[in-house]
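Usage example:
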Amino acid sequence: MPETGRATLLTPDGISKLIAQVALGDRRAFDDLYVHTSAKLFGVSLRLLKDRHEAEDALQEVFVRIWQRADRYAVSEASAMSWLISIARNHAIDRLRARKPTAAPVDAAVDVPDRRPTPEAEAIAGSERQRIDSCLDLLEDDRAAAVRGAYLDGFSYQELAERFSVPLNTMRTWLRRSLLRLRECLQE
Amino acid sequence: MSDQPVTTGHDDDDALASEFVLGVLEGEERRRCAARVESDPAFARLVTAWEARLGGLDVHYDEAAPPARAKAAIDARLFGAPPAAPRWTLWSSLAFLRGLSIAAVAAVAVLAAVLVNEIATEPVPGTRLVASLAPVDSDAVFVALLEDTGLSVTHIAGARPADRDFELWLIAGEDAPRSLGLVREGAAPERAADFAAQLIEGVTLAVSLEPTGGSPGPGPTGPVVAAGQLKKI
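Running the assembly step on the lines above writes:
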C-alpha cells in the first residue's frame, strides 16, 4: 500500500507550499494537502472529541476552513503543520465546549506573579518545540498531567478541577504558573 | 464578580493567550479570545507564539485515516458537487491520480484499486459495476465503470505510443476475447453497447496495444497492457 494520508511524505516546506497554492484557489493542491495531512488532523479531532462520527464532521469543517482561510497562513508566523493542527484543535474544542451547558466563568483575577517581562514575537525554533516534553518533566507531575490533559484531550478548567479534585481557581493558578514556567524553560 | 473585563496589560494578555491555546477557557471568555485573534494583531501574535510553543505536544496526536467519504463531503460543501455521488468522486479522483507525477505506476494502480473498492462501498442507483484494470508488464492503468448509461473507461496512467491505440476487450470465461472498441478520452468504447448483456460481474476487461484504428483481426494482436475484473457495486 502506498502511504497515503501520512504527513511524513512531505517536508514542512512542502506543506507550506501546498497551503500557499490552496490560497490561490488551486484545487489540486487542496487534494494533495488533504492526502498528506488528513490522517494527522483526523487523529487530532478523534483524540479530542473521542467520537468517530463527530470527528468526521469536524474534519470536514476543518478542511472547509483551511480552504477558506489559507490566504491567512501567509501572514501567520506559524509553521505549516502547527497552523493546520491549530485549526483542528480550535474547532474540536469549540465542539467540546458546546456539548454541555457552559460552566460558570472562571475568575479572571487570579494573582499570578510575573517574573518575565516581555520578550516577544520571537519565532519559536524547531529545536525548542521538541523540548516541551523535557520542560514539562520539570513541573510537578499533576501540573504536567493537567497541561497535557488540556492540550491533548481538551479538558476545560472545570473538568480539570474536577479530575484533580481542586477548586477551579486553584487549577487556574496551577496552569498559569505552569505555562509561565514552560515559557521560561523553552526560552532558555 | 468573575466576568471582569480582561485587562489589557501584555502579561495578562500573554497568560490569556496561553490559556486560549491550551484550550481550557469556556463560554464567553473563549469566545472573546477567539474574537480578539481576529481583530487584534498583537494578541494574535501572542496566540501564534503559544501555538508554536505548545505545538511540540502535537507529536502525541496519533494519525488516524479518515473514511473515504469525508473528502467527497468536503468537496461537495466547497465546490457544490452533489453530495456522496460516487461517479463524481470517481472522476475527480481519477483526475487527481492522473495529475500525480508519480514515477511508481504501481502506486497509481493500487490507488485506482482502492478507489474502486471505495466506490463499491457507496452504491448509487445507476452505477452497477466497476473494474480497476491493473498493469500487465506495462505501466498502463485504467478504470472502467458500467452505468445504466453505458460503459466508460478512463485511462489513468501509462503513455500511449503515438502510432498505437488502446483497444478494450471483453473476456468471459473460456470465450475468445471480443473487442469492445478503442479507449478514447471522453468517449465510450464504440461496441460496448452491443455486448451489454455480456457485461456482467466477474468478466474480465483487458486493454491491448494495437495499431492505430484497432486490431486488424478478430482478436488482439498486440500485448495486453492492463486487465481487471468487473465487480458489483
